[in-house]
């Protein structure tokens, strides 16, 4: 529990009753929750090691209510934390003691589907999977598929720029969203993007997607939907070690194949998953690849053959091709159950989310094994191998004093390692609070200040989701100052024509 | 013209301009200098910041300096069997930095995304004269705000890119064009929508005013053959399809609007289903070409009025003024104005990068909004 949140503002805490009264005037009925015992279900998101009951919860049903809530909070200097389904793995929706938790769970309607132009307009509380369910009858789907897709909402996906196992081929949320309506902290409603491609002006939509709820509250989303591929097939390939599996992945891509999904599991992850779901994963291998291709049947048949050939050339010891849909699903069942499977062999685990250049995988795995020895904590690895996104699961027991701290320190070392080899702190889970204090590993003070200035353009009082993403909260007035050096030209030797 | 040799030079030039209240126009190859209002600003050429920094085809990542010629980048990746999937195009001399800063994308944009979707990371100099990095050099990253999205298509108004990291993808091994003939705009849009909405994975769809519809099928040979065999059946209600050899000149027309004549040229982005209605509303004598399944409409006409822009707005789209006589460009904004709140937010974001307005040269009408913010 090494990550500190901002000290709660005593003035806000003191006027709690008045805040509840004002919000009830905006969202009548059951829309405001402030009884202390009723706040418990809201005290954490998917990063369950951190818990904090919010000041209160407000659950508006209309954009006008969201706007009025934010406007009132803005005028009163009250902080707001937006929340979708609360599945963030990085603490992006962790409440603050002095902040109103603004839940968008009641925004559940699919507003419009245009099959001809392949777009759907939905409210932010619609789950990721529900979008696909709304359009699958006509042979369409929404491509990004984070593993929490049955629960996570599209509004949260926009905030976090969520990915999934298919994003190497189909992109992240940002590549699949055309427009949003957001409410800014002062209550102003703006629409960014639309139903057309590449709008005029600055790409504000592009910076709102993935802004982790710090720039605005999403109240409507326009997404692109895609025709469902004719077929999908998967190959399960076992290798003696991760190095060979990595070489296989590199060759698949070098030969021009972008699979729909390409997942790697290491030995501990394979064993945990197989013990849990018994899908027939080979237990005598050091690394397992699941490679899925989708598209016309002729393409899948061709690519499966190519991938099997490449796997063979890279020392595969077992290769199984899915013969039917049930078998393809079985191949995935183990991978998709990897997190809960690890949960069965350890009381607790931390899920990390760095991305590395794939060529560094063997070094990173070796160093991670050394760190595992040093910390005395086990680690299992699942890996979106196609795009280099690594999910080490650090196993620990929260009931052993100090073990969570040790696991967090181990995780931080892994992320530092990812950055050191040319990668990043987070590939898809977001910075939230979890990686907040590691941001300086990747960005200089100047880089972070430039990002903070964008925050100031949207929310100059820093009231929306404070304490997340940025390790240091600079006041906007301080960031606006410019230190210029009047007088002599700084580079008198430059050629000037 | 100022000619920095590296990011540090560039930072010095911008800091100097900020300190002395001068305006700077960032320029790559200068091939798009005619876009936007006539203006007077000192030009900073980024052509000297050229060359490949890192390219590992298996990582699908290319890092290159901003002034590197686009043609050179395309040749480099093509030699490895790869491509910039957003299909950038430009006149000879266009640079990769200018292409990305202008948000250029070709016919494949409708399925593969635009420059914004393939710009992974950057090193840039802000209007404060500070070097900063954003994004990263790996294909999957959500660490911090996605500032590369803001920079792509920003026309050099929030910062000067010194170095860009782009996602590259394997180029298709085989590309076939299927064509239909004699389709009116509404029928052309319907045929393209049916193709793009089918699982035959059409990667691009365009239509020309002579009634030709072009569908591009790309990928591995067995897949291309199967999809080309399936498409005539999938589109049987809409049109007959034939295989077209040597389709490149027709694609070039649809992608760039080449061949359209008229003193005034618009690039209209709109919901694809609205394209036929916009065509029907065009002034007499106007010429057009459709790309992106109808989502992009090139329009050329003689009329120096804003009727095209008004029609586009009415249909949920926007019109960029690409080329026009100088007098018109001085009066009519290059970008379609957005809602007031959005324009104000854009102005604040620009000022977040460029507090002194170094890059606000007057090329864009809304440059003045940012002056109002800082005043």
UniProtKB/TrEMBL annotation, chain A:
Sorted alphabetically, the keyword list is:
FAD, Flavoprotein, Oxidoreductase
Q: Which Gene3D superfamilies match?
A: 3.30.465.10, 3.30.70.2740, Vanillyl-alcohol Oxidase, Chain A, domain 4 (1.10.45.10)
* The UniProt record lists the keyword Flavoprotein: yes
* Location of the FAD-binding PCMH-type domain: 50-228
Needed cofactors, names only, are: FAD
What the entry lists under InterPro entries is as follows: FAD-bd_oxidored_4_C, FAD-bd_PCMH, FAD-bd_PCMH-like_sf, FAD-bd_PCMH_sub2, FAD-linked_Oxase-like_C, FAD-linked_OxidoTrans_Type4, Oxid_FAD_bind_N, Vanillyl_alc_oxidase_C-sub2
Lineage top rank: taxon: Bacteria
GO molecular function terms listed in the Swiss-Prot or TrEMBL record: FAD binding; oxidoreductase activity
PANTHER family given in the database record: GLYCOLATE OXIDASE SUBUNIT GLCD
- Its protein name is Glycolate oxidase subunit GlcD
UniProtKB/TrEMBL annotation, chain B:
* Keyword Cell wall biogenesis/degradation appears in the UniProt entry: no
- PROSITE patterns on file: FAD_PCMH
Keywords, sorted A to Z: FAD, Flavoprotein
An annotated Gene Ontology molecular function = FAD binding
**Position of the signal peptide:** none
Q: Which InterPro entries is this protein grouped with?
A: FAD-bd_PCMH, FAD-bd_PCMH-like_sf, FAD-bd_PCMH_sub2, FAD-linked_Oxase-like_C, Oxid_FAD_bind_N
Residue ranges of the FAD-binding PCMH-type domain?
Answer: 1-171
Which is one Pfam family of this protein?
FAD_binding_4
Q: What is this protein called?
A: FAD-linked oxidase
Species annotation: Novosphingobium fuchskuhlense
């Amino acid at each position: 529990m090494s990550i500190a949140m901002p000290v709660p503002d005593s003035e806000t805490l003191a006027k709690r009753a008045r805040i509840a009264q004002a919000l009830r005037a905006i969202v009548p009925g059951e829309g405001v929750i402030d009884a202390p015992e009723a706040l418990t279900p809201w005290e954490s998101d998917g990063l369950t090691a951190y818990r904090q009951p919010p000041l209160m919860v407000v659950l508006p049903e209309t954009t006008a209510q969201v706007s009025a809530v934010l406007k009132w909070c803005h005028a009163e200097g009250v902080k707001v934390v937006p929340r979708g389904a609360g599945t963030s793995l990085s603490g992006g929706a962790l409440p603050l003691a002095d902040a109103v938790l603004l839940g968008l769970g009641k925004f559940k309607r699919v507003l419009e589907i245009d099959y001809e132009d392949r777009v759907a307009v939905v409210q932010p509380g619609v789950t990721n999977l529900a979008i696909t369910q709304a359009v699958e009858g006509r042979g369409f789907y929404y491509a990004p598929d984070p593993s929490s897709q049955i629960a996570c909402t599209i509004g949260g996906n926009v905030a976090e720029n969520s990915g999934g196992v298919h994003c190497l081929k189909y992109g992240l949320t940002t590549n699949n969203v055309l427009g949003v309506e957001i409410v800014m902290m002062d209550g102003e409603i703006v629409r960014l993007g639309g139903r057309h491609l590449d709008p005029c002006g600055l790409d504000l939509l592009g910076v709102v997607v993935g802004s982790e709820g710090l720039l605005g509250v999403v109240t409507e989303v326009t997404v692109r939907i895609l025709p469902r591929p004719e077929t999908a097939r998967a190959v399960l390939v076992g290798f003696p070690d991760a190095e060979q599996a990595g070489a296989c992945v590199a060759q698949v891509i070098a030969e021009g194949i972008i699979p729909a999904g390409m997942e790697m599991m290491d030995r501990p992850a394979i064993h945990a998953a197989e013990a849990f779901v018994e899908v027939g994963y080979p237990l005598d291998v050091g690394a397992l690849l699941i490679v899925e291709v989708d598209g016309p049947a002729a393409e899948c048949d061709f690519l499966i053959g190519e991938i099997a050939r490449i796997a063979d050339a890279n020392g595969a010891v077992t290769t199984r091709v899915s013969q039917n849909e049930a078998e393809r699903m079985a191949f995935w069942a183990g991978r998709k159950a990897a997190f809960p499977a690890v949960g069965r062999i350890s009381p607790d685990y931390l899920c990390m989310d760095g991305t590395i250049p794939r060529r560094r995988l063997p070094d990173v795995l070796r160093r991670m094994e050394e760190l595992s020895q040093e910390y005395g904590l086990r680690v299992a690895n699942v890996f979106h191998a196609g795009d280099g996104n690594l999910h080490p699961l650090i196993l620990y027991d929260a009931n052993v004093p100090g073990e969570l701290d040790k696991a967090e320190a181990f995780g931080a070392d892994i992320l530092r390692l990812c950055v050191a080899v040319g990668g990043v702190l987070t590939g898809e889970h977001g910075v939230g609070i979890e990686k907040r204090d590691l941001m300086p590993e990747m960005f200089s003070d100047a880089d972070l200040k430039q990002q903070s200035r964008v925050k100031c353009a949207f929310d100059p009082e820093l009231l929306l989701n404070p304490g997340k993403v940025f390790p240091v909260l600079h006041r906007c007035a301080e960031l606006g100052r410019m230190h210029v050096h009047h007088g002599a030209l700084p580079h008198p030797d430059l050629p000037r024509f | 013209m100022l000619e920095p040799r590296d990011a540090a030079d560039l930072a010095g030039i911008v800091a100097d301009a900020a300190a002395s209240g001068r305006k700077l126009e960032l320029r790559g190859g200068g091939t798009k200098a005619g876009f936007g209002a006539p203006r007077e600003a000192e030009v900073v050429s980024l052509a000297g910041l050229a060359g490949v920094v890192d390219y590992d085809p298996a990582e699908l990542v290319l890092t290159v300096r901003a002034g590197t010629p686009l043609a050179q980048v395309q040749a480099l990746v093509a030699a490895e069997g790869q491509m910039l999937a957003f299909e950038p195009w430009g006149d000879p001399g266009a640079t990769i930095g200018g292409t990305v800063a202008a948000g250029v994308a070709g016919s494949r944009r409708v399925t593969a995304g635009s420059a914004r979707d393939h710009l992974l990371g950057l090193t840039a100099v802000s209007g404060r004269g500070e070097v900063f990095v954003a994004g990263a050099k790996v294909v999957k990253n959500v660490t911090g705000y996605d500032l590369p999205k803001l920079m792509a298509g920003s026309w050099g108004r929030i910062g000067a890119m010194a170095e860009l990291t782009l996602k590259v993808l394997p180029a298709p091994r085989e590309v076939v064009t299927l064509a239909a003939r004699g389709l009116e705009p509404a029928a052309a849009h319907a045929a393209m929508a049916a193709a793009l909405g089918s699982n035959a994975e059409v990667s691009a769809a365009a239509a020309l005013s002579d009634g030709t519809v072009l569908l591009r099928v790309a990928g591995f040979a067995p897949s291309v053959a199967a999809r080309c065999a399936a498409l005539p059946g999938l589109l049987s209600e809409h049109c007959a399809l034939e295989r077209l050899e040597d389709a490149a000149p027709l694609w070039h027309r649809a992608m760039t609007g080449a061949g359209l004549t008229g003193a005034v040229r618009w690039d209209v982005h709109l919901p694809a289903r609205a394209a036929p209605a916009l065509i029907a509303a065009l002034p007499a004598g106007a010429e057009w070409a459709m790309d992106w399944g109808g989502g992009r409409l090139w329009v050329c006409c003689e009329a120096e009025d804003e009727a095209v822009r008004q029609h586009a707005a009415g249909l949920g789209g926007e019109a960029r003024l690409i080329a026009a006589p100088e007098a018109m460009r001085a009066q009519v904004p290059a970008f379609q104005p957005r809602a007031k709140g959005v324009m104000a937010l854009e102005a604040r974001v620009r000022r977040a990068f460029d507090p002194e307005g170094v890059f606000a040269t007057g090329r864009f009408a809304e440059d003045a909004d940012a002056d109002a913010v800082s005043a």
